[in-house]
Amino acid sequence: MAVVVWAAFAVGGAPLLAAAVAALVAGSAVAVLLHSGAPRAVLRILEARPLIKGDHPRLENLVEGLCTTHGFHEPSIHVVESPAINAASLGLSRHGAHLVVTSGALSGLDRLELEAVVARQLCVIHRELAFATVLSSVLRLPGAASVTASLAARTGGFDAASDVDVEASRLTSFPPALASALRTATEGPELTSPRAAVHLWMVAPQRDASPMGERASTLQRIDVLSEI
To answer: Is 80 a residue whose pLDDT tops 50?
Structure first.
């Protein structure tokens, strides 16, 4: 946007300084809008609906219990209708974060496994999720994917994902539960997710990643949990 504004002013014969100032203002305005509206935009592209209180009391109790016990700020909860077992976290801060869980995770995981998944995503929130959220918002824009592909690659990776797994297992004191949830997620139905949000999920959708590479990475994460 900044480049477009600068070009328009320059072509119109405006002084270069004026064109540069206008470009800076336009670019800053767009950046602020993308940043502030990122969570809403990402929830929209994920087709995540807010959890209606009482619909899934087990999930609500697990989130409330973990947050109370470990001092986390309680996120809003959203559900994505999908048979796949997966979860994601997004937001601009710990105090305005959103936890997203697939309906497949709610129906396909037992209490200990679901608790482990929730604990993991709370750990993601407790770390830093603003960059990943804003990146998803930017990636949805036409032509942005090629420019920001390298940045998207830096938001995840085996080391980061495994570190969060280990941290979550320490909260629940039962690593096998998360290992079991990851294994079930890998072996179950694949998640259909917009490419812009692939890096947000607990297990990256295989059709949008390298299928063999993603499966191998998840199996390595399971191996790490098995050694704790």
So the answer is: yes
- Does residue 45 contact residue 197 with C-beta atoms inside 8 Å? yes
* Region 97-102 average pLDDT: 98
**Residue 211 to residues 7, 42, 141, 178, 217, Cα–Cα distance (Å):** 42, 24, 25, 21, 10
82 and 187 in a single domain? The answer is: yes
Apex 63 CA angle, 112 and 130, nearest 5: 115
Name the average pLDDT for the chain.
83
- For tokens 């936890």, what's the residue? 99
Instruction: Please report how many Cα atoms fall inside a 13 Å half-sphere around the Cα of residue 157, on the Cβ side.
Output: 8
Question: What's the token pair of residue 152?
Answer: 């998207």
d(CA 6, CA 27): 10
Is residue 30 located within the same domain as residue 66? no
Residue range(s) defining the domain that contains residue 79: 50-227
Whether 159 shows a pLDDT value over 70: the answer reads yes
Asked, for residue 154, whether it belongs to a domain, the answer is yes
Least confident of 35-44, 103-112, 219-228: 35-44
Query: Cβ distance 148 to 139 under 8 Å?
Result: yes
In terms of residues, how long is the chain? 228
Is 44 a domain residue?
Answer: no
pTM of the model: 0.82
